[in-house]
Amino acid sequence: MTRVVAIAGSTGSVGTQALEVVRAEPDRFTVSALSASSSVDALVEQAWEFTPRMVGIGDASLAGEVRDRVPPGTTVVAGDEVAAVAEMGEVVLNAVVGFAGLPVTLAALDAGRCLALANKESLIAAGPVVQQARATPGAEIVPVDSEHCAIHQCLRTAGDVAGERDVVRRIVLTASGGPFRGRNRAELGSVTVADALSHPTWSMGSKITVDSSTLMNKGLEVIEANELFGVGFDRIDVVVHPQSIVHSMVEFTDGATVAQLSMPDMRLPIAYALGYPARVATPFGAIDWARVDRLDFEAPDTDAFACLALAYDAGRAGGTAPAWLSAANEVAVEAFLAGRLPWLSIAAVIRETMESWDGAGAESLDVVLDADRRARRRAGEIVERSNRAA
Q: pLDDT tens digit string along 273-312?
């Protein structure tokens, strides 16, 4: 049976790989909606290939150009209305980058859809609000991050992807270590943007690649794992695994550990989430075992990569602390990519921003949005002060 798919963020790294999955499985998936932030040319090209009923463009000033160029009869939405794409599919892939993906997450869950979630920031920043939306009849989250997709698959072996809290001893998230694995703090003082974007195993967008270089990506995934699977922070560990073949593990109370292994290929977790609970026939990431000569694991260096510890602290604090963390990180990473902040100062900006957190809870969407605004403003002030002092 063909499954109807809506893709928010279709022109980015995850979105374009999702469309590769659709091309590989044309009898399994059909595209009903696509959206992008501002990439008109790529969005229009996709619209002509996949003929969705709706396309969305986040930059409302580009709506007229999109309407003029998409196939006749295609509905075009823009600006705040883009979240409407989430109501167009049986499964909704949220591949929007950063906190901007929150409206799509909430719209998909509120509409009772299966949400293939690649946008971790929306779940992290607005966890309590998203949990309320998950209670909508029919609503379900299937994670697309390779690590959480791996955990989801491991927990299926226990018969319960909700966490099996009584039989799960711990979750172990694996990290590649990024491009700076093995370097100490002193060696990281002069790294460049190009250095940070040279990931050894994964091809990803710039923001998530920088997050991988600081280990903030793994810290955000720790919070995400807590939200998705209901396992406490003291039972979520991180190990560095440079081969990126073991995508994460679940250790059970009897000592058994179940892991999901594949070659690093984001199309596998994307296909898993789009097709869940069925599996696709295309073997994305299949392993040639004769060529796998070693699997290494080591503890992360939280002195050189302080963002990981900052994320654990924010997750344990709860309330709007994860929203402040996520917002400060986005501001700091943007400044680093623009050449306005050294790599080592990313963690410093986040740490100082978190010192201004007021301890507020996250009981409503308005509170979360306000926390995001205030954290961005505070982080921006710190970045500007750093620039003046340089």
A: 999 999 999 999 999 999 999 999 999 999 999 999 999 9
Q: Do 272 and 149 form a contact (C-beta atoms < 8 A)? A: yes
Whose tokens are 């939200």? That residue is 227
Amino acid letter, 231: V
Distance CA 386, CA 388 (A): 6
Residue 107 to residue 260: CA distance in whole angstroms: 30
Q: What six digits make up the tokens of 299?
A: 């503890």
Tens-digit pLDDT profile for residues 233-255: 999 999 999 999 999 999 999 99
Pairwise CA distance, residues 29 & 5, whole Å: 7
How would you classify the pairing of strands 140-143 and 54-57? unpaired
pTM of the model: 0.91
d(CA 203, CA 334): 19
